[in-house]
Amino acid sequence: MQRHAVMFRIKPGSQDAVRKLMSGYRAPRQLADGKSRLISTSVFMKDDIVVRMIEIEGDLPTLMRHLSQDPNIQKLERELERHLAEKRDMSTPEGAAEYFRKAMMETVTTRMAPPPEPALSGH
After folding, report:
1. Helix, strand, or coil here: 17?
2. Which of 8, 58, 100, 119 is exposed most, by the fewest CB atoms within 10 A?
3. How far apart are CA 77 and CA 68, in angstroms?
4. Whole-prediction pTM value?
5. DSSP for residue 117
6. pLDDT at position 33, please?
7. Taking residues 9-26, what's their average pLDDT?
8. Listed residue (78, 66, 96, 73) closest to 26, CA to CA
9. Whole-angstrom Cα distance, residue 87 to residue 77?
10. Are 61 and 97 in contact (CB under 8 A)?
11. Which residue in 103, 2, 95, 102 sits closest to 49, CA to CA?
12. CA dist., res. 9 & res. 109, Å (int)
């Protein structure tokens, strides 16, 4: 599993509209190519900064191309456009790839708990 995050800024006063859009859109199709899949998405917002975090399995570029063509994501991006502080082109795989190159946040660290110890039997 991989985690990736992108950050973007929204126009001041757009928080309520963006919150509604980001929490209410229909989920995209999960599988991209039979091997790459979107596991989860989380969105965080503070003032004019929005961070979208995704967990995936497989190849990120393949999944990004898949998501850029998903009708639910295309609709969300069209509706979100009017609230963005900086314009971006999410209408093509090339435009989406360019946006992700610019907006992708650096992974500094990921720490995971070790698997739990097996329970000892009472015998």
Report:
1. helix
2. 119
3. 9
4. 0.82
5. P
6. 66
7. 95
8. 73
9. 11
10. yes
11. 103
12. 23
d(CA 8, CA 84): 8
Give the C-alpha separation, 43 to 50, whole Å: 7
Q: Are 62 and 32 in contact (CB under 8 A)?
A: yes
Alpha helix ranges (H) inside the chain = 15-24, 60-69, 71-81, 93-103
Read off the DSSP letter of residue 121. Answer: P
Quick check: 123 pLDDT over 70? Answer: no
The structure tokens listed for 100 are: 């992700």
**Cβ neighbourhood burial of 68 (10 Å; 0-12, 13-18, 19+):** buried
Q: Is the predicted pLDDT of residue 4 greater than 90, yes or no?
A: yes
Give dist(CA 11, CA 90) in Å, integer.
Answer: 18
User: 86-104, pLDDT tens digit by residue?
Assistant: 988 877 778 877 888 889 9
Helix axes 71-81, 60-69, angle to 10 degrees: 70
Q: Count of CB atoms within 10 A of residue 99's CB? A: 20
pLDDT in tens, 31-70: 656 788 888 899 999 999 999 999 999 888 888 877 878 8
